Amino acid sequence: MTLYQPFLDYAIAYLQERLDIQPYPIPTGFERKEAITGKGKHQEVVVTTSYGFQSHKLRQIRAAHVQGGNSLQVLNFVIFPHLKYDLPFFGADLVTLPGGHLIALDMQPLFRDNLTYQEKYTQPILPIFQSYQKYLPWGGDFPEEAKPFFSPAFLWTRPKETEVVENHVFAAFKDYLQAYLDFVDRAQPVTDSHYLADIQEAQLSYLHYRAEKDPARGMFRRFYGEEWTEEYIHGFLFDLERKLAEVSLVQQ
Ligand code: DBV
Fold first, then answer.
1. I need a surface site. Which of 24, 77, 122, 196 has the fewest CB within 10 A?
2. Domains in the chain with CATH codes
3. pLDDT, tens digit (0-9, with 9 covering 90-100), for 215-245
4. How far is CA 28 from the centre of its chain?
């Protein structure tokens, strides 16, 4: 069973329908990775596949899909806008482990406490967020240090039933993605140099947080080793810093 394959298929098809998307390079050796875990009867093959796209306004649209049997399914899907737009990040962390499902879905703001920014990018999402509260209530315990990176429309939930994931979480995922692409349609390049500097700083701060605290690090290290994992995190999953370094080398 691959619980999140329909999410991935939908997202790629929908992005293709609405944007002119091009491939985003995936470093060699990271498109697909396989390992065998467990012992005896409990052996499972764990396969991680990666997907990358880009568009005129979106620097990197990327997904990591981990499939390791019924009790290990993960889809981490993030959109990083180009630095000349003040768009939020689209972030989905859909996780199924032996302990159950864990769902994080949000448009993560660049400027959490800025009211103008909230009005632009969070207010329009709140009705969608609220419409799912009945089925997808707050999931409890959440790392305090992660809070600055989430919007008030952060959908964080731990459904007991797989059916809830297949129905309500999938519907919410589609609604959030649609609303995100509506923002993308309307986004205009920022020209104010101070605002541009703020955007870059906010993108880097988000990126550092995600790369440093990646909750999948332990899992990836166990399956694929430390070297592969760190390269995957810094060279693909959260690559902005490397890309900025490449650009500045070219300009020298
Ligand atoms: N999380 C990632 C990436 C993953 C991934 C790149 C490719 O950022 C998977 C894989 N998330 C993943 C796994 C777990 C979580 C948990 C495997 C389970 C870890 C475990 O229990 O061993 C949201 N994801 C979590 C948790 C949070 C998030 C808060 C619980 C961790 C904890 O309690 O410490 N991920 C986190 C976040 C976003 C996100 C800030 C934004 C949408 O994608």
1. 196
2. 5-190 (3.40.1500.20)
3. 999 999 999 999 999 999 999 999 999 999 9
4. 21
